[in-house]
Write a structure and sequence with these properties.
The protein is mostly helical. It has two domains: 73 residues, Multidrug-efflux Transporter Regulator, Chain: A, Domain 2; 39 residues. It has five helices and three strands, in the order βααββααα. A three-stranded antiparallel beta sheet has the order 1-3-2. A hairpin with a 6-residue loop joins strand 2 and strand 3. Helix 4 packs antiparallel against helix 5. The longest helix has 45 residues.
């Protein structure tokens, strides 16, 4: 396999756009390994695909490009990456907990609304006990 690729081939190989690669270069995140002075062609090394994978992975967890640049360029930041990812994981778990509670509340509301619909014309008094909070 070839090690050095023109920007278009590298972009296609990594399933990102040439514009994205140019932007990453502009914001000092990922640079080509070589720029031909005459043609201005940009070349990337196949090993830079790992950097593209890392960028895409971190972006999906809402890290900003500035945060990603810091993580990828600072050796101390690489050591902190595990802590940062763990913090992000905790935030996501907390969000999931809140969403689970909201879903439970919606289910409870729907059940109550259904009972109300069924019983709204009933003339007898009926006492219902809530299951919420009971083991």
């Amino acid at each position: 396999m070839f090690l050095k690729m023109k920007i278009g081939h590298f972009a296609k190989y990594n399933n990102i756009s040439v514009q994205t690669l140019r932007y990453y270069e502009k914001v000092d995140l990922l640079h080509p390994i070589y720029i031909d002075e005459e043609s201005n062609y940009r070349y990337y090394h196949i090993n830079q695909s790992a950097a593209v994978d890392n960028i895409q992975f971190l972006k999906q967890f809402d890290f900003s490009l500035e945060e990603i640049k810091h993580i990828m360029n600072d050796t101390e930041a690489l050591a902190e990456l595990s802590q940062t990812v763990e913090k992000k994981k905790e935030e996501i778990l907390e969000q999931r907990k809140l969403l689970d509670q909201q879903l439970e509340d919606i289910d409870s509301f729907q059940a109550g609304a259904l009972i109300f619909q069924e019983k709204q014309h009933q003339t007898e008094i009926e006492v219902a006990h809530s299951r919420r909070g009971q083991s």
